[in-house]
Amino acid sequence: MKISRRRFIGLTGTMVGGALLGKPAKSGAEYKPKTPPDPFGCLVDLTVCVGCRKCEQACNQVNHLPSPRVSFEDPRVFEQRRRPDVGAFTVINRYYGGKRDERNQLHPTFVKVQCMHCQDPGCVSACIVGAMTKKDNGATHYNASKCIGCRYCMVACPFQIPAYEYHDPLFPRVRKCTFCYERISKEGGKPGCAAICPVESITFGKRRQILELARHKIKNDPGRYVDKIYGEHEVGGTSWLYISGDSFEKLGFLDLPTRPIPYLSETIQHGLFNYLWAPLTLFGILGAVVAVINRQQNRSSSESVQEGHQPDQDTQDTAGLQEKPDSSKREEKL
Amino acid sequence: MSADAKPAPVEAKFWTPGVMVLSAFMMVGFFFVVARYIGGLGAVTNLDNSYPWGLWIGVDVATGVALAAGGFTTAALAHLFGRHNYEAITRPALLTAMLGYTIVALGLAIDVGRTWAMWHPIIYWQTNSVLFEVAVCVMIYLQVLYIEFIPIVVERFRGKVDLPGRLWVFEKPIEWLLKLVDRVLGKVMWIFIILGVVLSCMHQSSLGSLMLIAPTKLHPLWYTPILPLLFLVSAIGVGYPMVVFETTIATSSLKLENEMELLTPLTRITIFVLGIYMCLKVGDIIARGAYVYLFDGTTQSNAFLVEMIGGVIIPWIMLLIKRVRSSRPVLFVACALIIFGVIINRVNVFVVGYQPPFAQSSYFPAIGEMAVTAALIAGVMFLYRLFITIFPVLSARRQEVSS
Ligand code: SF4
Ligand code: SF4
After folding, report:
1. What digits encode the pLDDT tens for the residues B143-195?
2. What is the ipTM of this complex?
3. Closest-lying ligand to the alpha carbon of A161?
């Protein structure tokens, strides 16, 4: 018993070791972000937005969403901070970041919230069937016909954006900003919100160019802006970028790491399962173990007196015995 | 139990009060499942856009998979590592695993929004997704478990095929078929057993990788790169306590002989595995500096302390004591604590430790969710009871009245 226990422990060690060998060895392996080469983006200048909610209205129309409970003209919606939902892919929230106007009144800052269309999105990496994909034009696109409704994309999104149709019993969809994928796929097309904004708070263009624009704006008017472009580096960069006069923490923006969300899970996943090397190795090791142990046991059982541990033979014997009475029974029936 | 006792169907009345209670639970749960398919997930759950995963994923799926680990750990011990004296416990463990995984699949089907599309991962491959890997492994492993169970079915019917009336003409072909299946499976079974172990290691660990996609949401007490390793080791660790737990319940409720001669040595392996797990957990908390969150009094830190102290450290110390290991009721308590620890751990990782940044209120399961979870657990127990009555699963003999 002593020897065999030690052997067992040794084997467990090999097993676990084999399964995890890849982790430390490969964790340094190059992680390839799935960033599209030249995507579109939107720059939101929070110092310009007046909170008219025209973008919300345009989004509602473009995406054929249900009419809202509180009308788009009603400023009372600002009494609550809202989140994007199945009926509204974008919302404007009001914050008081501390800035005061000429009459020493607290100056509101309006913040537009929608899917950030991350460059290397958590939702896309997570989706079990690839219903979430990152398009070359920058849109993080949802395909309901593939979706199984596991809601792992919602777990994965660091901005807590995807909403779910919890009250649909059979065909619920994940709902979120589409970046107006169809519209921007056409030459000169803009997202509904960017097209309508009356004060040009939202600038649509190639991400490269609007990033340039943002830098330019901050440099030209350092008193107006804090020196940060939100979305430039957050979770590996996002297609939607923000510049602001108040510090971003005061406006409900999350302080996020610069590493893409899928970094760790994909590194481990591929470290272990590329070419299925770890499972195959484990299979091989276990196969070898079985062979060795079987040989040892056969040898020892033929050397010493049998201890009655041959279950296979046992069952065959009894089965053989049982067949006979059975065939006689059949004859009776005949 | 005598070593040469062969597994046999249990001869006891099936419709005991206990079984009827189980049926009642299942009926209540069924009512809520119907409601879910009429009113949607929102009608019976407290899930929302902040908390997309709740009790069903945390308990029915994640915990269900972990607690079914007895299947592959005992199979590895008895069939792969040649400890044939443990043969007697492999069948009940296999049965638990098979039923457990079946119910996990059922629970998942209820939780997934588009149940009818559940097969999609078979054709739409997304190999970056940890969930995809888990789903594929579980799907294949379930088939492996069914295959591993076939010999038990064959054993039940071989030589006993007795069809009524004119159907007797089929008796011979069926007999022949059973014999063939038995012969073929007997030769290749080792492949399936190894496959089962490999698949188990894969998805038990990947279940831990699942939450690595949420670095900013999962509480730092649990978010660690070694989460997959922790899940794997704790699954292996809980395998044998689970066997002790269910064997004790089965043997005492059916008045069978207890199998302490087998269970006691089994738990010595658990001391080792659970010890590794404890070291990994403690080392991880220290290495990442996450211990600063240990005593801040939040729900999360308390949940972590309960998980570690009540579910790992106390039972581990208990198992170290020889008297505990050889006392049936105390050993049962120790094993129940280990199981409790794993349940709490899975719930912590998937539910309690999950902190969405914009949540309006925190999640607590609705009555409907609890009822369905209770029904699924009752379902496993009901089927277990049914299967041991029909098939030769348990080896323990009925106690002599005198003893
Ligand atoms: S913000 Fe969320 S939903 Fe949008 S692309 Fe990023 S991860 Fe996906
Ligand atoms: S809910 Fe749909 S889109 Fe989201 S991860 Fe699951 S399958 Fe993919």
Report:
1. 999 999 999 998 888 877 777 777 788 888 888 888 888 888 888 888 899 99
2. 0.92
3. 1
Answer yes or no: do A308 and B168 touch at CB < 8 A: no
Q: Which residue is listed with tokens 């040794």?
A: A10
CB B168 within 8 A of CB B99: no
Q: Enter the tokens of residue B127.
A: 């190999």
User: Does any domain span residue A185?
Assistant: yes
Nearest CA to ligand 1 atom 4: A115
CA of A24 to the centre of ligand 1 (A): 29
Q: Is A112 a domain residue?
A: yes
Structure tokens at B97: 């695993």
- So where are chain B's domains? 17-390
The answer to whether residue A186 neighbours chain B at the CB level (below 8 Å) is no
> Backbone dihedral region of A179: left (phi > 0), alpha (psi from -120 to 50 degrees) or beta?
left
Q: How many of the other CB atoms lie within 10 Å of CB of A227?
A: 9
Are A279 and B3 within 8 A, CB to CB?
no
Condensed to tens digits (0 to 9), the pLDDT of residues A144-165 reads: 999 999 999 999 999 999 999 9
Q: Note down the domain range covering A312.
A: 5-28+271-333
CA of A178: how far to CAs of A62, A143, B215, in Å?
10, 10, 25
Ligand at shortest distance from the CA of A119: 1
Which positions ≥6 away from B198 have C-beta within 8 Å?
A: A279, A282, A283, A286
Our answer on whether the CB atom of A157 is closer than 6 Å to any ligand 2 atom is no
